[in-house]
Specification:
heterodimer, A: Urease, subunit C, domain 1, 2 domains, 11 helices, globular, B: alpha/beta, 16 strands, disordered N terminus
Chain lengths: 417, 467
């Protein structure tokens, strides 16, 4: 018994990945999430951690393993959303929570800290990653989270394969609260968000312009400057009028805005499409949680897609990233085409976060982040049967499967509680 | 506005008082006079025959090509090739599935309503760790748009509970999910009250921060025990009074000079706890960890009450055999975990493992205005994980997790929760199997009344707030 416990511990401590292997997946229903759409029966050749070829009757090079898909679907690894995965082990346990900056600075004095960047705090060995990636979620965008500030800080897309240095190049993003989400942090009026942001911008462009009442430290000015030159800025904003205003505001000041939340985005869908601004939304958010979201509805995703807005899916819980495909399935149930729903979990977020040339599609040259499913990938009765990240097979075990197996064994043997 | 309030207050005061002839032996339970009685009265509905569906009855049975007949708000018959009575509406459900109306045993709709404004946060009376005297129904806002959203997800009954800030948070109320102006008009007729109790982190966090008991789990347990010990004393005081009153009545009847005894002072908190110990109020215990559930079973044994269900028990799988033996249900999420230490050991097979032993009573609950809209999907996930673990869980078994089992834990299984002749006609017609992410409720009947019809937007309920 003691030996077995040691073995289990060793398994849990072992790297999640066995190392990149060359292999061929044969006879899969391949959802490329790219221009090729869905290939009813195709093969995928993986070499050196990348997709080498996608097509019919591909030959397996000598030494390559062959996986018979037998018609089962394969998709790109899924996007888990904007989250705090790897930044929190247990949400309510403060010692394990690293997503928020709580400096006891005096009010207004240097309260805006765009230089705050959560990526160094990312813990790739978090149990949450292990639980998440075996469900087919291979990457996510980690973001700082705070309700008491306008500029929250920076984050980036990360691979969930368990490697150190997990941030994906080119994905760095600034996160900002807007509307009622930042109400208390802007003196009790959303109008002040525009005023204060403009003050911060002037501090970047004219150092010292705020005198002793500066919002930014020199490091903050330097960080913000990069985003004023076409950088990607995610605004957490829900109300239609706020979405419209903040898009105009951000564009006029050189930022590349992305809307997150966007409960009422459907109301301004046409303008968002014309401005080329994507929306990262929770398709289950249909209730008027607050007065910014009176227009929330289940077909938000459908209406945005029809208007030509690029959409991706997210929700606000790091422990539920595995639920992302359920979000997509529900969007389909409420009118979004299936292919668009898959894109919202794969190619669309990859493009939004600047990693579309390497992630989010099944196409030659892309990282071999792949999932073999037991059935329709968006269906709740389907499970991921095998996950690969960068061509390495994920050990399909987690602390949760260990718990399951221990107690299943007790059920079978009739051990008393 | 002030004048209107005054009128309303007067109107309330003018309600009939408790019946004066309450027998002496009931004196220990003044609450038996049932204030805030249900005023639910479903309108008349035409007979409806749902034809040729895949019927999951909720009692473990599946009928392919089955019919369900509703007459006068009740299930009249379930079977095959039923004949429609004269004037019946006939629903062709070919290719569709029919289940009992779904029941959520754990909701905060109405008490934490949408929008979540500062003025409407009415779910936790977190001013004292024991507030058994408060009733969730007095916080329920019947215009919560979450209720109509839940109806579209097939939910026909729900228990609204106080939150979990307190050791004993107060009484829960079971509602029929019907549009109404008052909470009384939603109250499930004859449903017993629930009593919300909470283990673990929440009470000790809330009161520990205030520098008062409980700040530890041992403080929690001392709090439950002292509360029930007080209630036991209270019951004895009333029993003693009953004895004196009986003697007084006898003496008076004999023509002797007698002074009527003075009744003990009513204590609304202890009345609730006495109701629990008499089995009239059902305990719904928020409790995550297996060891704490075992402690609570001992507390219940000490004071002679039953726990109807452990809610949020992410570790219930560790204690599944014992709970099945003791007839305690586990009201659970399909896959929530990790958000706090006591949720760290959550697994996706939890519900299936609780369901597995002989007598196991697994319930899918929501505790969420989002989750209550798709209890069927949560059940589908739990069913899938159980099957992968080698457990035999057909849809006709899994549907009980959202129908018969929650009804049982709420004490309303005799009235609803399955499709059986004589029960309330709470019925959902699904566009296909409900165990799918693509499943949508096409029609939802409550007491035979069609309240939601996907094909008829005019029928879609909209709360006053949603206008």
């Amino acid at each position: 018994m003691r030996k077995r416990a040691i073995l289990v511990a060793a398994l849990l401590l072992a790297p999640a990945l066995a190392g990149a292997q060359d292999f061929l997946i044969r006879g899969a229903r391949v959802h490329t999430a790219g221009d090729a759409g869905t290939l009813a029966k195709a093969d995928i050749l993986v070499q050196d951690g990348r997709i080498a070829a996608v097509g019919s009757d591909l030959a397996a090079p000598a030494g390559s393993a062959v996986i018979e898909a037998s018609g089962r679907p394969v998709t790109p690894g899924l996007f888990g959303g904007i989250a705090q995965i790897g930044l929190e082990e247990v949400n309510l346990e403060p010692s394990t929570y690293d997503a928020e900056l709580k400096l006891a600075a005096p009010a207004w004095q240097h309260m805006w800290r765009p230089e705050f960047d959560v990526t160094p705090a990312f813990n790739p060995r978090s149990n949450v990653l292990g639980v998440t990636r075996i469900e087919g979620v291979t990457w996510s965008t980690i973001a700082p989270l705070a309700a008491d500030t306008v500029i929250i800080g920076q984050g980036a897309a990360v691979t969930l394969d368990g490697r150190f240095d997990a941030a994906l190049p080119g994905s760095r993003t600034l996160f900002v609260n807007w509307g009622s989400a930042a109400h208390d942090a802007s003196g009790g009026s959303r109008a002040a968000q525009y005023m204060l942001f403009d003050q911060a911008i002037r501090e970047v462009r004219e150092p010292g312009s705020s005198g002793s009442a500066a919002l930014l430290l020199p490091e903050g000015s330097a960080a913000l400057k990069a985003y004023l030159a076409g950088g990607r800025v995610v605004f957490h904003v829900e109300r239609a009028s706020d979405i419209r205003e903040v898009v105009r505001f951000a564009k006029a000041r050189g930022m590349r805005p992305v809307i997150a939340g966007g409960a009422e985005a459907w109301i301004v869908a046409r303008e968002l499409a014309e401005a080329g601004v994507p929306v990262i939304l929770d398709p289950l958010a249909n209730l008027p949680d607050d007065f910014d979201r009176l227009g929330a509805r289940l077909d938000n995703a459908k209406l945005l897609h029809e208007a030509g807005v690029r959409i991706a899916f997210t929700q606000d819980d790091s422990f539920h990233l595995r639920k992302s495909r359920q979000l997509a399935g529900n969007a389909v149930a409420h009118g979004l085409p299936w292919e668009a729903a898959l894109a919202a979990l794969t190619s669309a977020p990859a493009d939004i976060f600047g990693i579309g040339t390497t992630h989010g599609r099944i196409a030659p040259g892309q990282a071999a982040d792949l999932v073999l499913w037991s059935g329709d990938p968006l269906e709740v009765t389907t499970v991921a049967e095998q996950v690969w990240i960068a061509g390495s097979p994920v050990a399909m075990r987690s602390r949760q499967t260990e718990l399951r197996d221990r107690y299943l064994e007790r059920l079978r043997t009739g051990a008393t509680d | 506005m002030a004048i209107l309030s005054g009128v309303l207050a007067t109107a309330c005061a003018a309600q009939p008082q408790a019946s004066p002839e309450a027998p002496a032996e009931r004196a220990a339970e003044p609450a038996a006079r049932a204030p805030f009685a249900s005023a639910y009265a479903p309108p008349a509905a035409p007979p409806t025959l749902i034809r040729n569906a895949t019927v999951l009855t909720g009692n473990g049975e599946r009928i392919d090509g089955g019919d369900v007949l509703m007459v006068d708000g009740r299930i009249a018959a379930v079977g095959r090739s039923l004949a429609p009575p004269a004037g019946a509406t006939v629903v062709d459900a070919t290719g569709r599935w029919v289940t009992p109306g779904l029941i959520d045993v754990h909701s905060h709709l109405g008490v934490y309503a949408s929008p979540g404004t500062a003025s409407a946060s009415d779910g936790n009376e977190s001013t004292d760790p024991v507030t058994a005297q408060v009733w969730a129904e007095h916080s329920v806002w019947p215009q919560d748009p979450g209720l109509e959203a839940a109806l579209q997800g097939g939910v026909t009954s729900l228990q609204v509970l106080p939150g979990s800030a307190n050791l004993i948070g107060g009484r829960g109320v079971t509602l029929k999910n019907v549009p109404a102006t008052t909470t009384q008009a939603m109250k499930f007729p004859g449903a017993p009250h629930g009593l919300k109790m909470a283990c673990g982190e929440n009470p000790k966090r809330v009161y520990g921060r205030k520098g008062k008991q409980p700040s530890t789990r041992m403080g929690n347990v001392a709090g439950y025990r002292q509360a029930f010990a007080n209630a036991r004393d209270y019951m004895e005081d009333w029993a003693e009074y009953d004895g004196k009153l009986a003697k007084y009545e006898r003496d008076k009847a004999k023509g002797e000079d007698a002074t009527p005894p003075k009744p003990p002072k009513r204590d609304l908190q202890l009345e609730s706890l006495a109701g629990v110990m008499r089995g009239e109020i059902l305990v719904h215990n928020h409790c995550y960890r297996a060891d704490e559930m075992a402690t609570m079973l001992d507390v219940a044994q000490e004071f002679g009450f039953r726990i109807s269900a452990f809610h949020h028990g992410v570790e219930t799988y560790k204690l599944a055999g014992r709970l099945a033996k003791e007839g305690v249900c586990g009201a659970l999420w399909a896959d929530w975990w990790g958000f706090k230490m006591e949720a760290y050991d959550g697994i996706q097979e939890n519900i299936a493992l609780v369901d597995a032993p002989e007598g196991g009573c697994a319930i899918v609950h929501s505790d969420s205005e989002e989750g209550i809209q798709r209890l069927n999907q949560e059940a589908a996930k739990a069913m899938t994980r159980g099957r992968l673990a080698g457990l035999d869980i057909p849809p006709e078994r899994a549907i009980r997790w959202v129908t018969a089992n929650p009804a049982k834990s709420l004490g309303i299984l005799g009235q609803t929760g399955t499709l059986e002749a004589g029960k309330m006609a709470d019925v959902v017609v699904w566009n296909g199997t409900p165990f799918s992410v693509y499943a949508l409720a096409d029609q939802v009947f409550v007491d035979g009344v069609l309240l939601f019809d996907r094909a008829n937007p005019a029928l879609k309920p909209r709360s006053d707030f949603s206008l």
